[in-house]
Amino acid sequence: MNLQQKQMFLQNITRLGLSSAFAACLDDFVAGKSVEDYLPTEEEQVEILRKIDEIEGRP
């Protein structure tokens, strides 16, 4: 599958219920670009984990 075919496939990814941000990340990944900007910072990771712990009732 060439890059153009992959990008055509990815254009429909949101129809599967996935976010447009996730689709953009996949598009960049398939094109060989960095996806680092799509990942949370260390501070954001800590906050995400804190919220998960809070929801699940962990101390």
Any overview of this molecule?
With 59 residues, the protein is an all-alpha fold. Helix 1 runs antiparallel to helix 2.
Question: Which helices and strands occur, and which strands form pairs?
Answer:
Blueprint (H helix, E strand, L loop, with lengths): L2 H8 L9 H11 L11 H14 L4
Number of helices: 3
Helix amount: 55-70%
Instruction: Look at the structure and give the mean pLDDT.
Output: 89
**What structural class do helix, strand and pairing data support?**
mainly alpha
Strand content: under 5%
Q: What integer value in Å does the Rg equal?
A: 16 Å
State the shape. elongated
- CA-to-CA gap between the ends? 48 Å
Total strand segments:
0
Describe the sheet with the most strands.
none
Order of helices and strands: HHH
